[in-house]
Amino acid sequence: MDISPAAYRKRLSRARAAMVAFVSNRCGLVNPASPCRCHKHVRNKIAVGRLDPQHLLYADRTDEASEQEALLVRQEELSTLRRIAALLRSHPVYQSSE
User: Fold this and answer.
1) Domain boundaries, the chain
2) pLDDT tens digits for 48-78?
3) ∠ at Cα 75 (71, 78), nearest 5°?
4) 11-21 b/e with 16+ CB inside 10 Å = b?
5) What are the helix (H) ranges across the chain?
């Protein structure tokens, strides 16, 4: 990214703070004083075809075994990524600059 580690951390901190402020002002689950507007967003997403009420990806709890299997696959992917990252970090050509 051609920036110092300190600048990166500061940008990440600012981005996180901006996300917390955004969600706190707009989500009743995060901040009970904020009214929930999900019904408006869901209605619009259904109208434009981005959400199918018959196939709600995150709301379907009928197949717990399938969900557990998917989590195990993701866990294995994460382990693979960690091994790759360790390999890249050990190679001097791939070390980041200070």
Assistant:
1) 1-60, 61-98
2) 888 888 876 655 455 566 777 888 899 999 9
3) 140
4) eeeeeeeeeee
5) 5-26, 38-47, 64-90
